[in-house]
Structures are given as C-alpha cells and as structure tokens.
Amino acid sequence: TPPLNPAVNHFQQYLRINTAHPDPDYTTAVSFLNNLATSIPNLQTRTLHLTTPNKPLLLVTLPGSNPSLPSVLLNSHLDSVPAEPSKWSHPPFSALKTPDGKIYARGAQDDKSIAIQYLEAIRNIFQQDPGFTPVRTLHICYVPDEEIGGFDGMDKFAESNQFKEMNVGFFLDEGQASTNNEYRVFYADRSPWDLVIKATGKPGHGSRMYDNSAMENLMKSVEVVSKFRENQFDLVKAGVLPNSEVISANPVYLKAGIDSGDGKFVMNVQPSEAEAGYNIRLPPTADPDLLKKRIADEWAPATRNMSYHIVEKGPLRDYKGRPLITATNDSNPWWTVFKNAVEACGGKLSKPEILASTTDARYMRVRGIPSLGFSPMKNTPILLHEHNEFLKDAVFLEGIKVYESIIKAFSSFEGATP
Ligand code: MET
Ligand SMILES: [Zn+2]
Ligand SMILES: [Zn+2]
C-alpha cells in the first residue's frame, strides 16, 4: 500500500464527519477544523455562536503585518445535502479511496475539498518558507447552513460586528468542477425562489365530469410552467444562452389526493386541494417583477381559484438596485491578482461564468464586496448533490498548489483597492 498523504488523510477524516442535513454535526466538524488549523504555525482561530449552540461558525485568521489594508476572506460551508446510502456504490460517509484515487463521499466536491485545501496550502507555504510574512490579513470562515439558505450562517455572520471589524475587501467562495483541463471561475450566482402553487375547487364524485376541479386547475398550471421551462431550455439546447443565464423552473414536488388512512389514496373522490412546488433560479440579469407578473397572470391565475407563495431565498439586488455581479476585468484589482495567481502556478482559467446554482457569495456581493466562486477541480465530472460524489486525490492535491499561489498573492498584495 502507498504511504498515506497527510493532506489526503485530513480530507478523508473531514469527509467522515456527517454534516448532511437535516441533522448536521457541526460541533464535531468545527472541532476537527479547529485542531487542524491550530496545528499550523501563524494561524489563530475563533469560534462564534451567532444563533443556537449547535450552529457554530469557525474563523481562522492569518494576520498580516499591515492591518489597515482590507482583508481577504475565504469561505467554505460546513454542511452538505443529504445522501441516500442505498443508492451509492460506497457508503457516503466512508470517504473510501479506490485504487485509482477516487475518494467517495457526500461533500467531496461540495465543498469539503476547499475547506482542507485552504489550510494545507497555508501549511505548505510556511513549510517551504518559514520566513514568509503576509502583509494583508487573510481569514477563512467555516459557516453552517449554506445548503438551506444561509440564514443562520453567512447571512447572520455578514451582519455581525465581528464581520464588520474584519474589514473584508475581497471574498473567495466555492465554485464547481470542470470536465476539461481549465478551471472555472464564477462572478455571479443565480438567485433561488421557492414557489408553491395551490389550486382549490369543489370536491366531487370520482365518476363525475365537471369544470374547475382543483386537480384540473393545477394540471393546467403544470402544463403552462412546463411550456415556459421548455422554452428556456430550448435557448440552452440551441446554444443561445448557457444554462446559468436562463430562468429555470423545475418541479420538485406534487401534493394532492385524499389519504385513505392506510398509506393509499381515496380513489372515488376528486380532491378539493392540490399543490405543486417549484425550484426557480433567476440569473442576475432577469427582471423579477416580470416573472412575478407571469406567475400571477399565467401560472396561478386567481380566476382559476389558484394562489401562490414565493419565498425569495436571499437578495437579488444590492442597495443601489444593481444586480449582484463582480467585475472580471482590469477595473477590479482583486480579479487581476486572482487571475495572475492561478496562471502563475500553471493553471488555466476558462471564461468567467455565472453559477447555475447559488452560494453564500450573494451575502457579500449585496454589501458591495467583490466575490468570486472557485473550486480547483479540473478533469472531474460534476457530481454536486448527486449519488456517488467523488474527487480524485491527485486533483485534490493539485488544488492545494493553486491555493498556495492564490494565498501568497493575496496576502502579499499591497495595491490600492476601490
Ligand atoms: C437555498 S440557497 C442555495 C443552496 C444551494 N447551494 C443550492 O444552490 O441549491
Ligand atoms: Zn456548496
Ligand atoms: Zn450544494
């Protein structure tokens, strides 16, 4: 058997801590990361409790010699989406490594890899150059609840005095794997809305034909939404727009029928209520008012006894009403530092993209803090939220080298920032 690589071993140990919803073990995760961080010279740590005791947030700090410069904050969320063990080829919290180096675990890509890579990169920087002196302060935060909206996590943290005192000038968050040899980088997210559409109508005998039953009205809606979805998807299929620049409206649940008490449904009554749930994602350029009007007029018209409820999960515009976008050109000095750092270690970046999903970066962009999404995983299938999520050890280790370059560059960067 090959010798254990300590960094890979730390990654596997972290993956074995089950922080999947609905019952994430944040306490064990934070204590593990805290121990790992304090094993590295020059790092200071603090644990914050911004809500309940079982939702800690870990802050790691690499102090710079010039504390008057705005700091850089790297983020990794502690939580994961649930896994269905019976559908996996290896148990999702085993972090089993196959002979070709694939490490299987929920969170391997999203986003426990970067959590460990940040720390191992700092460890390597000081091992290679014990005299390395950061000028600009760099922080890492490990936050709870990203996967359920970040309300008790990054949203709360961003409002805290501790955060204000950190004077964050630039934020680096998770990105996504790329299937080719280039790293992907994201300058905006799509914003999530949870949409519930409800229909009510007269109940009736299962044999009767009549208009405006709840089921009929809901099914008409489902068809209309499906048509909208198809039109958006056609733009993607025709290559007009990338997936992340259209509005997606995906059905996530259907609820109707009368429970007959034995886990089955009453079959000879047409129900008086029916409902459908949709996960909507809006690109930063979309007009939210236009979509709301479409929902009210076409998807859930009151004239057909329909109602709807939208939960907007986080901000869509900043305080000046501008979309939450970070500049990826020379006007943004942070972008230049980032790009040069990735290229300095031999990495190639593909054209900056909007992320199809959503991250905690929106809570920074809404405060005007430039933010990029980046997870150095290339030549890797995109498996976040899927069965059999894995990351190859060699890809993980190469990512550490990329962060060494990024962290050195940001902590040495003394230039002016807007
Ligand atoms: C509900 S906020 C978004 C959480 C998660 N990162 C997603 O994109 O689905
Ligand atoms: Zn994530
Ligand atoms: Zn996720």
TrEMBL record:
GO terms for biological process: amino acid metabolic process. Zn(2+) 2 binds at residues 110, 147, 385. Zn(2+) 1 binds at residues 77, 110, 174. The active site is at residues 79, 146. Pfam families: M20_dimer (PF07687), Peptidase_M20 (PF01546). The keyword Protease does not apply. Residues 194-298 form the Peptidase M20 dimerisation domain. GO terms for cellular component: cytoplasm. One of its GO terms (molecular function) is metal ion binding. Its EC number is 3.5.1.14. Binds 2 Zn(2+) ions per subunit. This is N-acyl-aliphatic-L-amino acid amidohydrolase. The lineage of its organism: Eukaryota, Viridiplantae, Streptophyta, Embryophyta, Tracheophyta.
